[in-house]
Amino acid sequence: MSGKLSLARRDFLILAGAATTAGVGGIAFPSLPAMAAGSRPVKVAGAGPRHGMSFFGGLNYAPGFAHFDYVDPNAPKGGMLSQVGPTAAYNAGFTTFDTLNGYILKGNAAQRLDLVFDTLMVRAYDEPSAVYGLVAESAELSPDGNVLTFRLRKEARFHDGTPLTAEDAAFSLMLLKQQGHPLISQNLREMKDAAADGPHVLKVSFTGKQTRDLPLFIAGELPIFSKAYYTANTFDETTLEPPLGSGPYRIGDFKLGRFLTYERVADYWARDLNVNVGQWNFDRLRFEYFRDRTAEFEAFKTGAYTLREEFTSRVWATEYNFPAVQDGRVKRLELPVGTPSGAQGWFINTRRRKFADPRVRQALGLAFDFEWANKNLFYGLYRRTESYFENSSMKAQGLPSDAERTLLTPWKDELPPTVFGEPVSPPSSDGSGQDRAMLRKAAQLFVEAGWTIENGKRVNADGEALTVEFLQDDPMWERICAGVIKNLRILGVDARFRLVDSAQYQDRMKNYDFDLIVQRYSMSLTPGIEIRSYWSSAFADIPGGRNLPGIADPAIDALVEKIIAAATPEEQVSAARALDRVLRAGHYWIPQWYKASHQLAFWDMYDRPAKKPAYERGVLRSWWIVRDKADASGTNE
Questions:
Q1: For residues 14 and 139, what is the distance between their CA atoms, to the nearest angstrom?
Q2: Are 501 and 508 in contact, with CB atoms under 8 Å apart?
């Protein structure tokens, strides 16, 4: 595809001071490069300092609100919540950590280091895209949208008792822009400067090409570091020295490969602020690390850790029958997921010449018999993922609407015709595990792309054999990949499963040294600048990025910017649906499966608010220990 990216920019950052009706979605973490030439600066609704910011419309919570609706303000403090580290999550990619610095590219960082650092503002998890003051008691955007002023709370403190000032905040933003992880530093390219105007006023200036959500990213996602600490200590290197923070927790005991503990800061300066009331109730948060899922599950059964989110359908369906479940000491709970289910699949590395032709990529996808896998491996618990915005209004369905067609038409000559019809979706198989119609179609696509059969092997015109490697660091995936590999071998493809250790896996993923790799992107209902890192050309070759397939397509770049620049939710939905059509037509992945719920198991010693936050599990921030149950269980030592 070819074409020149030219966008009419219409970004709106609304600094809201009144309570209104909420929508859906959330702000996501890091991403991205500059806007295209011709962009216009953000606009502002209202004037003067405001207690919160939002993408669209007003805010749910008025100035001076008591607490968020999804917390219990009387929740008791104490006890410990213990759970597994990243091995329990989708494609975590590592089973330990080797650094306590999570804001640079180097190393494998411990999870949830954000608990150590406060931010200027914090998310409200029952609103689509709203943040409220934490370190900053207010924010004010200039009439031209190019200067954002934060007024910081005078009582803000680091854990050593030193004041947290505007100088620290300005230093942190500039440090992240210059030395931070590429997913952060690229995002900050359109932040021109950050400077203190006295001890409690921070002024952030922009180039005029910034996205609508860049101010919210700065306000609600980026940590505030101590300037004194990082003047005395190196920032851009891995370290096991616990950093100086200002958040609700500090790093406690840890042992590489075994566990990491966060300790609640008893004299946390912001513990009584409305944005924290009823939250951060556990004295300790402990993450246990395991090398394999079997040992991990067996440890949970003995109470070695006390809460587990189950990601393996077979285990959820067949193995929660141990004595502690039967007698009620372990409870099971399914919580609805209020955000899009995410885009999970095997992503195909188009940087490799053998995968450059979309017909080859489509053929690979036809080798996956989801219906067989769901019945025989997943106990029928999943649904097939079709869309990059699955389980949301942004999923493309039917023929393009007039609004979608308007966005797609300028690229008509470069886009495949399928974009303008029903959206591309994976076919349903006969469930046999070896659907002959699907395999015949795959063989035809291989031939059309120049890969023919010689001596039983699929080769190109140069005689090179087509090889496909499924890279993983978790042996659990071998049984899932086996069916796909079997079908690819029937088609003459030299397909294999490659298991590597977590360090090698991380290195290969960061440097795009793979054929196919599993990833899951969690989508917001108000997508922002983070989606550039998923699909934009500028991120195709940045080490450590999220554009795993290496997508580099000007039409996709343009549609990504349309989503980010949308002035209304309706415009954003239309742009997302148009993008979904183009991505799906490109066959950049083999889509897998999803479920619209969190499946939790926990030892019966916890309680939670009556209302769950719409866009988060809420466990870490709003659950609490029931002391007599914890004491009786003997598992919350």
A1: 11
A2: no
**DSSP state string for 9-78:** ---EEEEE-SB----S---------PPPTT----EEES-S-BSEEESSS-BSS-TT--S-TTS-TTPPP-
SS3 category, 333: strand
Hey, what are 355's tokens? 């995968």
Residue 235 has what DSSP assignment? Answer: S
Q: Which residue has the tokens 């101010």?
A: 215
Residue with tokens 């989503």: 563
DSSP state of 115: G
DSSP calls for 91-107: T---SS-SBS--SSSSS
Indicate if 343-594 has the same CATH topology as 1-338+596-637: no
Q: How far apart are CA 386 and CA 601, in angstroms?
A: 29
Q: Which helix (H) or strand (E) holds 318?
A: helix 313-318
**3-class SS string, 265-278:** CCCCCCCCCCCCCC
Q: 321: exposed, middle or buried (C-beta count within 10 Å: 0-12, 13-18, 19+)?
A: exposed
CATH class of the region 343-594 = alpha beta
| CA distance to 192, 204, 224, 232, 469, per residue, from 199 (Å) | 20, 15, 14, 21, 55
Joined together, the tokens standing for residue 465 give 């054999």
Predicted confidence at residue 95, as pLDDT, reads 64
Closest residue by Cα to residue 347 from 108, 581, 592, 31 = 592
**Is there a contact between 400 and 578 (Cβ–Cβ < 8 Å)?**
yes
What per-residue string of b and e applies to 276-303 under the rule 16 or more CB within 10 Å gives b?
Answer: bbbbbbbbbbbbbbbeebeebbeebbeb
Query: What gap in Å lies between CA 133 and CA 254, rounded to an integer?
Result: 32
What are residue 210's DSSP bridge partners?
A: none
What six digits make up the tokens of 180? 């931070």
Question: Maximum distance among all alpha carbons in the chain?
Answer: 76
Strand, helix or coil at 450?
Answer: coil
Question: What is the pTM (predicted TM-score) of this model?
Answer: 0.75
Closest among 18, 32, 3 to 536, alpha carbons compared? 32
Cα separation, 161 vs 246, in Å, equals 9
Do residues 373 and 462 make contact, with C-beta atoms less than 8 angstroms apart? no
What is the reported pLDDT for 577?
A: 97
Q: Are 320 and 6 in contact (CB under 8 A)?
A: no
Calculate ∠ Cα 550-25-42, nearest 5°. 75
Taking the domains of the chain in order of start, what are their residue ranges? 1-338+596-637, 343-594
**Residue 203 has what DSSP assignment?**
E
Q: What distance, in Å, lies between the first and last C-alpha atoms of the chain? A: 60
pLDDT of residue 57: 65
Residue 185 token pair: 């530093």
Q: Which residue, 18, 43, 16, is CA-closest to 212? A: 43
Topology of the domain covering 1-338+596-637: D-Maltodextrin-Binding Protein; domain 2 (3.40.190)
Residue at token pair 């996709």? 556
Chunk the chain into consecutive blocks of 10 residues (it has 637) and report each block's average pLDDT, rounded to whole numbers.
28 32 28 31 53 85 97 97 65 67 91 95 91 96 92 98 98 97 90 97 94 86 96 95 97 94 98 98 95 89 95 88 96 85 92 98 98 93 92 94 98 97 96 97 98 97 97 93 98 97 90 95 81 93 92 97 90 96 98 89 97 91 92 69
| Cβ atoms < 10 Å from Cβ of 57 | 20
